[in-house]
Design brief:
The chain is mainly alpha-helical and 360 residues long. The chain has 16 helices and no strands.
């Protein structure tokens, strides 16, 4: 009888463990998923040789921690959430009913602190990337024409490559074989071949797009204004018209205009502006974290790239600003202080009474 009872209890426990958990809002499920994908989070203690915790188990640990205690969940995982996830957590989780060991006010303070740290970290990362870019510009190699062409060959061809003369292309692709190894020469040859193939495909696509644009403009009987037929970088009235093969320029080409593809006809001022635009776009890509082969963690987490003088100045300004506010408050008449306090209290109480957690 005892054995049968034990088996019955085991069977009931097994059935209970298979009961599906209630559905949670998709925003919270996305938070659990994001946490499980974060390799920097330690979900449970493990030995060095222990296998990696399965993805589903990590999600389960995060969800279990949330369902057990929302405040402890926020303390444990809040620093790994982004601004959108913090907002979702506040809207969906910081509300009644609460458990005896949970505190809504403390959760609100935690959320505010995490948001402030996110904002501060974002500013630090931007500043560090900017200073790293200045260092790379000074060294010259990373933002050299050859290296930028390797990172963005299609953009380079669009703004720079298609306007080069044959002599300029030859000088660009020249390689000093006397001061390098055989493997270096082989790598240079392979890179040039891959780049030339990609540029050729890009050029063919552009020519096809130009042809389509010409046909569309011909059907529409479009006429280019006289002012627009001049080269925008030119200064002479009788200067030949240069028609770019770029997608944007192709839509403006009149079918009656003869395309001059020889690069020597392009105005030097125009070419310099396009080259400057290419460099500006490559800088934006770097600052935006879009250079796939660059190790941004070596920059984003590098405190040596912080502008210490600027940080010290900001802290000093904040200190004197607080001091000025305190001085004004001390000099303020007692009646004004009381009125100001009452106004701030009224505002606080109004917002508090309208908070969604207190609505029935």
């Amino acid at each position: 009888m005892t054995t049968g009872g034990a088996e019955g209890d085991d069977e009931e426990q097994g059935n209970a463990s298979t009961i599906p958990k209630p559905d949670l809002p998709p925003e919270l499920m996305d938070i659990f998923k994001s946490l499980a994908e974060n390799s920097n989070i330690v979900f449970k203690s493990q030995q060095i040789d222990d296998p990696e915790i399965p993805f589903e188990e990590k999600q389960g640990i995060a969800r279990e921690a949330f369902e057990k205690n929302r405040e402890n969940f926020l303390i444990r995982f809040g620093s790994h959430l982004n601004a959108r996830q913090l907002s979702s957590f506040q809207d969906l989780a910081v509300k009644e009913p609460i458990k005896p060991d949970e505190n809504l006010e403390e959760m609100c303070l935690l959320l505010e602190d995490f948001r402030r740290k996110l904002s501060t970290h974002s500013v630090c990362v931007k500043n560090r990337r900017y200073h790293a870019m200045q260092q790379l510009l000074e060294k010259g190699e990373y933002f050299s024409e050859h290296e930028m062409m390797q990172r963005a060959p299609d953009l380079y061809q669009e703004l720079v490559g298609q306007y080069l003369t044959e002599a300029e292309k030859k000088a660009r692709d020249s390689y000093d074989v006397r001061n390098t190894s055989f493997s270096g020469i082989l790598m240079h040859t392979l890179e040039k071949k891959q780049r030339d193939e990609l540029l050729e495909e890009t050029q063919q696509e552009k020519e096809e797009q130009v042809e389509v644009s010409r046909e569309q403009l011909s059907l529409a009987d479009f006429e280019v204004p006289v002012a627009c037929r001049k080269q925008w970088g030119g200064f002479e009235d009788d200067e030949p018209i240069a028609c770019s093969t770029s997608r944007n320029a192709a839509a403006r080409v009149s079918p009656n205009i003869t395309k001059i593809s020889t690069p020597v006809f392009y105005n030097p001022g125009e070419r310099d502006l396009l080259r400057h635009e290419f460099l500006s776009l490559m800088k934006e890509r770097f600052l935006g974290g879009e250079d796939k082969d660059f190790d941004y963690t070596a920059v984003d987490d590098n405190t040596l790239l912080d502008d210490l003088k600027q940080i010290e100045q900001d802290e000093e300004d904040a200190y004197f600003e607080d001091s000025d506010d305190e001085e004004e408050l001390r000099e303020q008449p007692a009646e004004d202080k009381e009125a100001s306090s009452e106004d701030e209290l009224d505002i606080y109480m109004r917002h508090l009474s309208n908070h969604h957690s207190l609505q029935h």
